[in-house]
């Protein structure tokens, strides 16, 4: 046996020597040296310290500037809200647990942390689906009515929250469960056991099929459509830039989350096989980094968002008049054609 399973935990280490203890009650320093947990604590503190102002500032700038109140930015605001949700609510639990070397908050805290992490992640996943569909629609029909696009995106945002609840709520009602994972200082869905009494196998299959394969398939189909109309002369530069932002943002998000999903699927489909708790922790905390780098991708690639941030930081003054002049020309051209700037 390569693991030790308890009523509310699964540790990928044999208890032949008797050193394995509940991650809700005892430090897990037999899984890794104390300095590793200290490093995780510092990293989580860094994500909280930088992630909150970056996402909050992105949210505030988007709301303040009228020229950013377009469908594509509605989706970015929704993703920033999801990032703030997980940073403010979930990350402190993981940081505090890493400080002590085990999940000190018990099962209630584990459910709380796991729920908000999964929920915020799924909001981002389905927001990217809405973004991909919106981009494919606009690229296929550049003259599409802006009001129709707004209604579509608003309904899509509501849909993203509904789909997020359909993934994050079941483990709280005994269809699967949230348990400590990796080095046992953060919680996630139980990939490790079949657990017939809570139908864990069916939930994991449902989660991967509906909340990973389906979104990826839709996104790939939509982006394939973007490639087909890439040279469409009716599509202006602003919309092409918006497509570039959408594709880069999506690729960046899945670059952070797919390693975690892949190792989770491997563990689930190879029940009882040996795996490194450090590898699970590494992919898990790498995935959490998306809350910081997703908004940074938008800032680096999106001229209007970056310009709005500069103007806000400079108290309404523009220190780069030449760039602004060119930008105004682009913005006015985008406004006249009723398309979303980027």
Account of the protein in words:
The protein has a single domain, classed as Rhopdopsin 7-helix transmembrane proteins (Up-down Bundle). Helix content is 68%, strand content 4%. The N and C termini lie far apart (54 Å). Strand 1 (4-5) and strand 2 form a beta hairpin. The chain contains ten helices and four strands; from the N terminus they run ββααααββαααααα. With 342 residues, the protein is mostly helical. The chain has helices at residues 34-64, 71-100, 106-140, 146-168, 200-228, 237-269, 277-288, 290-301, 303-313, 321-336, and strands at residues 4-5, 10-11, 178-181, 186-189. Mean pLDDT is 86; it is low at 322-342. Zn(2+) binds at residues 201, 271. Disulfide bonds join 110-187. The chain crosses the membrane at residues 35-60, 72-94, 114-133, 153-173, 203-230, 242-258, 278-301. Belongs to the G-protein coupled receptor 1 family. Opsin subfamily.
In terms of topology, how is this protein built?
Layout: E1 4-5, E2 10-11, H1 34-64, H2 71-100, H3 106-140, H4 146-168, E3 178-181, E4 186-189, H5 200-228, H6 237-269, H7 277-288, H8 290-301, H9 303-313, H10 321-336
Antiparallel strand pairs: 1-2, 3-4
Helix pairs in contact: 1-2, 1-8, 1-9, 2-3, 2-4, 2-8, 3-4, 3-5, 3-6, 5-6, 6-7, 6-8
Transmembrane segments: 35-60, 72-94, 114-133, 153-173, 203-230, 242-258, 278-301
Binding site for Zn(2+): 201, 271
Subcellular location: Membrane
């Amino acid at each position: 046996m390569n693991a030790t399973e308890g009523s509310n935990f699964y540790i990928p280490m044999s208890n032949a020597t008797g050193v394995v203890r509940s991650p809700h009650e005892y430090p897990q320093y037999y899984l890794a040296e104390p300095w590793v947990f200290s490093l995780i604590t510092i990293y989580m503190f860094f994500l909280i310290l930088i992630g909150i102002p970056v996402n909050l500032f992105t949210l505030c700038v988007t709301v303040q500037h009228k020229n950013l109140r377009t469908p594509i930015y509605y989706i970015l605001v929704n993703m920033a809200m999801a990032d703030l949700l997980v940073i403010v609510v979930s990350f402190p639990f993981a940081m505090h647990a890493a400080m002590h070397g085990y999940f000190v908050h018990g099962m209630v805290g584990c459910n709380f942390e796991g729920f908000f992490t999964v929920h915020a992640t799924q909001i981002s996943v389905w927001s990217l689906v809405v973004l991909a569909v919106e981009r494919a629609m606009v690229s296929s029909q550049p003259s599409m009515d802006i009001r129709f696009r707004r209604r579509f995106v608003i309904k899509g945002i509501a849909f993203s929250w509904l789909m997020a609840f359909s993934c994050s709520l079941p483990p709280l009602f005994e269809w699967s469960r949230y348990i400590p994972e990796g080095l046992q200082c953060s919680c996630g869905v139980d990939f490790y056991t079949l657990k017939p009494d809570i139908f864990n196998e069916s939930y994991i299959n449902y989660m991967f099929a509906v909340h990973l394969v389906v979104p990826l398939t839709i996104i790939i189909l939509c982006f394939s459509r973007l490639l087909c109309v890439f040279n469409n002369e009716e599509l202006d530069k602003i919309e092409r830039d918006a497509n570039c932002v959408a594709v880069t943002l999506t690729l960046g998000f899945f670059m952070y989350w797919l390693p975690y999903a892949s190792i989770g699927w491997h563990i689930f489909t190879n029940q009882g096989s040996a795996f490194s708790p450090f590898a699970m922790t590494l992919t898990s905390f790498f995935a959490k980094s998306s809350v910081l780098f997703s908004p940074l991708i938008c800032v680096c690639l999106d001229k209007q968002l970056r310009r709005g941030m500069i103007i806000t930081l400079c108290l309404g003054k523009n220190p780069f008049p030449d760039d602004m002049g060119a930008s105004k020309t682009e913005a006015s051209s985008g406004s006249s054609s009723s398309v979303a700037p980027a």
